Amino acid sequence: MSPLHSIRGSSDALAHKAQQQGQALTEFLVVAVALIPLFLLIPVIAKYQDVAHTTQMASRYAAFDNLVRNDSQNTVKPTNQLQDEVRRRFFSNSDAPIKTMDVAGDFQAHQNLFWRTPDDKPLITNFDDITLTPTRQASADGAPFKPGFGATGIVSVNVNVRLANLPAGWRFYEPFDKIDLSINRRTSVLSDGWTGKNPLDVQQRFADLVPANKPLPLLSKFLNPTMKLVEPGVSPPKLGQLDFWQDNVPAKRLKTP
Fold first, then answer.
1. Which residues of the chain have pLDDT under 70?
2. What is the C-alpha separation between 23 and 199, in angstroms, rounded?
3. Residues 6+ apart with CB under 8 A from 215
4. Within this chain, do residues 231 and 159 fall inside the same structural domain, yes or no?
5. Is the distance from CB of 57 to CB of 86 less than 8 angstroms?
6. Is residue 37 included in any domain, yes or no?
7. What span, in angstroms and rounded, lies between the C-alpha atoms of 187 and 39?
8. What are the C-alpha distances in Å from 67 to residues 190, 202, 243, 247?
9. Within a domain: residue 195?
C-alpha cells in the first residue's frame, strides 16, 4: 500500500470516528432533555406520597378516637375539635407539641417545610384545606349492632387534603400546574364492638354473646376430676370461666376516680 493510500485511509477513519462521537453526543442531549422533567418531578412526587401517607395515618387516628370516645362509653369528641387535632398533630411542623385544644395557624412556623412547591410556597395553602368527615352506619334491623354490643355500629372517618397546584408557566411541571389535586383517605372501625368499660363489662358481653357458654362451668365440675385422673399434674381446662382470663392489676397501680 502506498503512503498516499495509508494517509487517506487514516483520514477517513478519523472522520468516521468524529462523526460517531457527534452522533452519540446528540443522542445523549436528546435523552437528557426528555429525562430532565422526570428528575425535576421526583421531589414533587415524593412530597405527594408523604402527604398521602400522613393523610392515611390521620384517618386512622381519628377512627381510633371513636373507639375510646363513643355514645356507649362516654361522649363523642366534637368533630371540630378532632379536626383541629388532626391538622396540628399530623399536618403541621413535625416537632409540634401534643397539647389539648391546640390549633394550627397559617404561618410558616406551623407548616411542614418539606411540603413546599418549587417556588417555595406551601403545598397546603391553608389548614382549612384539610377537612375531616365522620359518618356512622348501623344495620336496619339492629343486628349485629344490638344494644350493649356494638350499639354505635360502623364509624368511618374520611380525611380530605386539598393541595396547591405547582407554579404555572413551567413546562416541566405540566399538567401538575392545573390538576387541583386532592388526597382522600378513609378508615372504618366497628365502634364499641369488643370494648367495655372494665373487665367485668367485657366478660358479661362475651357471656351474653354465646348462650352455650353458660352451662360450661357446670360441666367443668364433672370434667375436671376426670382430667386429673387421666393426666395427673395437668391443669384442667377453664370451661366457661371467663374470669380466669381477667387482667390482674396490682392495687397500687389502680387509681380511684
1. 1-23, 28-29, 31-34, 71-74, 138-152, 191-199, 202-203, 205-214, 240-247, 254-257
2. 78
3. 240
4. no
5. no
6. yes
7. 34
8. 8, 14, 24, 20
9. no
In angstroms, the CA 176 to CA 16 distance is 44
Contact call for residues 127 and 104 (beta carbons, < 8 A) = yes
Are 183 and 214 part of one and the same domain?
no
67 vs 194: CA distance, rounded Å: 10
Number of domains into which the chain is organized: 2
- Cβ count within 10 A of residue 99: 10
Find, among 150, 126, 128, 125, the residue nearest to 139 by Cα. 150
Question: Which of 182, 131, 180 minimizes the C-alpha distance to 157?
Answer: 131
Write phi, then psi, for 163 (nearest 5 degrees). Answer: -100, 150
pLDDT tens for residues 18-47?
555 566 777 766 766 667 777 778 888 899
The range of the structural domain enclosing residue 121 comes to 22-136+152-188
Instruction: Report how far apart, in Å, the C-alpha atoms of 217 and of each of 29, 222, 237, 248 are.
Output: 82, 9, 10, 21
Q: For 141-150, what is each residue's pLDDT tens digit?
A: 555 555 444 4
Instruction: Give the predicted TM-score (pTM) of the model.
Output: 0.63
CB 165 within 8 A of CB 177: yes
Q: Choose among 157, 170, 180, 144: nearest CA to 70.
A: 157
Supply the Cα-derived Rg of the chain in whole angstroms.
33
